[in-house]
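Slide 14.
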Amino acid sequence: MERASRTVTQVVRPVLRSVLHEALESETGGEVVVKSSTVSGRIFIVEQKVAWAVLNGPGVQNFSSVLIQRQLVSRDDVEQVMTECRKNGGNFCEVLVAWGLVPRDMLRDVLRGHMANHLQVLLSLQDAQALFVPQPRTYSSQLTFSLEELTLPVEQHSTHPPAEREVMPNVKQSLEETLKIEGAFAACLVDAKSGMCLGSQGGTATFNIETAAAANTEVVRAKLKAMTVLGIKDRIEDILITLGEQYHVIRPLAAREGLFFYVALSRATSNLAMARFRLAEIEKGLQLT
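Slide 15: predicted structure.
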């Protein structure tokens, strides 16, 4: 195998795209490694297509968990497929298709949405470094994607139910109102199933709201699981995370199960009671048709 040449580039969003384009233009293919202070990721390029994009960080859901959550496969199915892959070196997705567990078209759609979510977070990182490592590799699957397929606007991904796409026009206005809350500096509306933002506003050079939302999705899941174990038949009004200099407020939507507001506020300039009141009012004004 040829000795891999390495190019390290300090990333701002447009530069990461140029690193990806460099990798996609390479006849050899290889791997783009992305690292930041909060998360890391890897993007595998095969035959000038994206074969895999994965985000590593707290609360990030892996692909097999997505399939289980959507009830496309069982946990036993996944374990058996993984055993087969380890034994014979097969491709996880291709074995799912070959065994008749998930239709190819459906699997491709779910896989594209999953990788697009991870790629979206990686492209939004402001303090990352990118490393392209050219490396020839064999890949026993045609489930690969162009960069354009993975960077379509959220509402164009067919993996999201129509109900989610319909809320998009009203999300921007509601998030703009949220940022008018005293002390608020970042806000987003999040799909608790995938950890993906349906819309976001604000943020700083050291705080990416989409990355924070993806990581804290696990907080919502953990609380819902705890309520189930304890037999608490109630709804979460909000979850407050208090940091030294910030408040983070998570507010699940009463009118749309599976979605929640995630808002970051400065402790020095915010009034927490008023912020919670205003967020409740904004939620009431969010039109979910």
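Speaker note: The longest strand covers residues 49-56.
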